[in-house]
Amino acid sequence: MRRSLAPSQKVRRDDSPASPLQTSVESRVLNGFILPITIAPKRARGRSSDDRETKRKPLTQCKSQLLFVSDHEELIKKLSRPFKCPIPNYEGCNSTKNLGIRKTKVKRALYDPNMPNALVLYTPPEMTEHEKLKNEGPLLVHVVVDPLLGNILRPHQREGVKFMYDCVTGVQIPGSYGCIMADEMGLGKTLQCITLLWTLVRQGPEGKSTIEKAIIVCPSSLVKNWNNELNKWLKGRLQAMIMDGGADGKKKLQQFMRGQGRTAIPVLIISYETFRMHADILHTSEIGLVLCDEGHRLKNCENQTYRALMGLKAKRRVLLSGTPIQNDLLEYFSLIHFVNEGLLGSASEFKKKFENYILRGQDSTATDLERQHASERLKELTDIVNKCLIRRTSSLLTKYLPVKFEMIIVCQLTPIQRQIYLNYINSESIKRTVCIHSRNYSAFFKYELISMVYKVVILRCVTVKIQREPALAHYQASQT
Question: What SUPFAM superfamilies has UniProt attached to this entry (predicted)?
Answer without folding.
Answer: P-loop containing nucleoside triphosphate hydrolases
